[in-house]
Amino acid sequence: MVLIRAGFVHPAGRRGYLTIGGSVLQGTQGKTLLLLKPRGFCAGVVRAIDVVRIALEAFGPPIYVRKEIVHNSFVVDELRAKGAIFVDSEDEVPNGERVIYSAHGVSPEVREHSRRRGLRVVDATCPLVTKVHVEAVKFAKEGYSLILIGHRDHDEVIGTLGEAPLVTQVVGNPEQVKSLSVPDPDRVAYLTQTTLSLDETKDIIAALKLKFPNIKGPAAQDICYATENRQVAVKHVASEADLLLVVGSENSSNSNRLVEVARNLGTNSHLIDSYKDIEPDWLVGAKTIALTAGASAPECLVEETVKFLSTKGFDNVQELEVMPENVRFGLPPEIVEAIAAAPAGATAD
Ligand code: SF4
Question: Which of 139, 290, 299, 308 is such that its CA lies 20 to 30 A from the CA of 284?
Fold first, then answer.
């Protein structure tokens, strides 16, 4: 594990400085703000947002997006302002128009419905979600009953469940494992949502293994690298912090899990959409605050929060890099083609 503490070193060599959003915050006497890294956007979110931005530039409006492209209200509002039209269902997209599927993926039923409607689809499903879909199809074809660990109402789970709805059951906690019933207990496989708590998922898998000793799982865990890395970073720092703040929207699964991880370790923790959600009470008596962001939360919201907290005395800002993260995903073919076809200098940054 790589840990870089006090990563902010002033050009003059002094520590305790952070340049953020163009201004320099200085503090060696004040209260401490620990800025966790990795935090914020993951590769799947960067890719999905790029898809919408480039589609708007290359094809022009209207561009419809089925569901929130990622679970963050700031991101969605920004793309809406640029011309994206967010809809709940492909039913709302006029025949023949262009629709983008969100990073959370869709079921085969949605794909088929879009095809029948003549919609021009650009698929921004995260490749790590697609991996889980492929596993679901494979296990179902091999005759397994599938147990999908996740949150029943989450867009990702709805999409994955749709790959093999007749043989898949969703469980969200170890209690629900007890009531599972399958035709052949020796032919059961499990998969998981990508954005779950590592610890809670371990408990559910343990309960499944007790009930179905021959259960099979994915070759590599389905919880994605970004979810895991952000949780590991929170675990690493939770005991040092009086308060741990997570920038992320209420419907962001991985952001909520970060709050839970901190609370499970006994650290006071809250989810904030922006610094405006910080309640004065939370800061009373706190000497050290840790700050992180869910995989769909943009860095500008973290920067604003750092600035706000500096005005409250948390001006000794230290960045803690718990591990490096350098994952990137390629763009979908429709977008690659659109970029190739664009006049020189007209591609999105
Ligand atoms: S959180 Fe993980 S699965 Fe979800 S978009 Fe990001 S990388 Fe993909």
Answer: 299
